[in-house]
Fold this sequence. Notes:
It is a single chain. The protein has helices at about 5-20, 25-35, 40-65, 70-95, 100-140, 160-175, 180-190, 195-220, 225-245, 250-270, 275-300. By secondary structure, the protein is mainly alpha-helical. It has one domain. Helix 5 runs parallel beside helix 7 (about 180-190) and helix 5 (about 100-140) runs antiparallel to helix 10. The protein starts with 5 loop residues before the first helix and ends in a 28-residue tail after the last helix.
Amino acid sequence: MVHFDLLLALTAFGIGIVVGLTGMGGGALMTPVLVLLFGIHPLAAVSSDLVASAVMKPVGSLVHLRRGTVSTPLVRWLCLGSVPSAFAGVLLARAFGDGDDVQHVIQVALGIALLTAATGLAVRGYLGLGRRAREASAASDGQGGQAGPDDAPVRVRRVATVLVGAVGGVVVGMTSVGSGSLIIIALMGLYPALSANRLVGTDLVQAVPLVMSAALGHLFFGDFQLDVTTALLVGSVPGVWVGARLSSRAPGGVIRPALAFVLLASALKLLGVSTPVTGLALAGVLVVTPLLWMVARRRHGLPAVAERPAVLGRPGRLRVGADAGQD
């Protein structure tokens, strides 16, 4: 008989919304929550989260496919590297041993992956800042502020894209982190002209076969727990659908910094950092980050503090998510 955990399902619903809004945060939030808050062993948390994600990811992907915010050539080349390497990542994790040995390895690997994901979010924000500065400069010169239509063709950098998929696949197979956080950062660096909506849509679609491959490996060689996965699915599937529907109006400038903060806190605890030191580190981040962000904005020719647009004209013309709200 499967034991159903209502609190876990509600938690999964909230995390599912974040995944639909931003295209990231599934494994990066769910797995540490399972380990730190619900006391589930790291390998079981990774296994159950990946199996749940294999069902959850297609829900958000369908929304983006219908909207046409997906670059299918990028999806194909990413999957060429990620699908086999995700399965291999499970075998690599198991190669470290059984019992407490593999649990420790997975926990440390998860902590490192979360630190990398938090750093990647900061990099993503900085790259997005540069993009907005260029668009604002082009608009002031009368050249228009848009990089092009969402269905504009993308020149695929094949070798680099396959390598990104391969590295991301190994990380996902070992930790369940990376399908929606690390890979999307790499895509921003490789394809700076891609719009925010296409980045999220492409990343969500490529994550479907990636996560399915990793989930299959964990079903065979991991520590899959049906009761945990059931609760995750009940909460996360409707959550990611709601988040995907709201993605065009979401204040990304609030969600992503908060997500990075949570990832940093989780990483420090998984790596065994004491609570006082973690608290001091997080307090320092809260004080220093806004100051650094204001300096970065000024260096790109933008005002130190983002100005929120007033509600003018027809309600349908107000842009809040991918455009105005990402600062």
